[in-house]
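2024-03-11 09:14:02 INFO worker-7 job=invfold-0412 stage=load source=structure_tokens
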């Protein structure tokens, strides 16, 4: 558990930082601490949310929420792999082509739906709230960007 939590404390804030840096998340999360060169705001937000969840929930509910979140992310990655292959997106060298094309990612998504279907209604609602919250932050950030991009006059 210590290893997982340590890795999460290092990795998740950097994902928040990358989202903000790339314009997907709120820009203030892309700030870098001048002395330590770390994404300080993203670290504080991540650890703050983690502390609130740890203090208000049971270990079981937090574990299930973390796993449902991972299943959602993995499903997105599986679906993105189909689209990236369709667009022939490549960064370095020839992309991996799996036999069966989109069949393997589709089976992976079905497996993740099956795993998620074993969650209780309360856990599923918590995961949905997490997705809706993330969509709200993304949408609000996109709206702010659109408003600042419009130059009057």
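2024-03-11 09:14:09 INFO worker-7 stage=emit residues=153
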């Amino acid at each position: 558990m210590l290893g997982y939590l340590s890795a999460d404390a290092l990795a998740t804030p950097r994902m928040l930082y990358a989202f903000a840096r790339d314009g997907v998340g709120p820009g203030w999360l892309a700030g870098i601490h001048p002395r330590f060169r770390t994404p300080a705001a993203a670290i504080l937000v991540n650890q703050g949310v983690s502390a609130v969840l740890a203090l208000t929930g049971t270990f079981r509910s937090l574990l299930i929420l973390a796993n449902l979140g991972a299943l959602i992310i993995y499903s997105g990655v599986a679906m993105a792999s189909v689209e990236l292959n369709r667009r022939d997106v490549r960064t370095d060298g020839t992309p991996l082509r799996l036999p069966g094309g989109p069949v393997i990612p589709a089976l992976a998504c079905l497996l993740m739906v099956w795993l998620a279907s074993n969650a209780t209604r309360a856990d599923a609602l918590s995961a949905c709230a997490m997705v809706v919250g993330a969509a709200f932050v993304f949408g609000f950030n996109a709206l702010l960007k659109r408003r600042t991009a419009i130059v009057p006059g």
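2024-03-11 09:14:09 INFO worker-7 stage=report msg="The longest helix spans residues 59-87."
2024-03-11 09:14:10 INFO worker-7 job finished
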